[in-house]
Amino acid sequence: MERNIKNERKLLFFNPLLYALARLFPNLGRKLTQRWFLVFLTITGSIVFVYALIKIISKG
Hints:
Elements: H1 2-14, H2 16-24, H3 26-31, H4 34-59
Helix pairs in contact: 1-2
């Protein structure tokens, strides 16, 4: 349980939007195993973050 809370805190810190989505749709996390769900969120979050960063840099 303690490890799970740490993972959620990490996810919240790195990825508030996807954390909120995970909270809104807990069924998604139950259908997949939780570890893979966290991995999936982290990877998609990283991709979105890098994409947004590139957009911001290219504007400037």
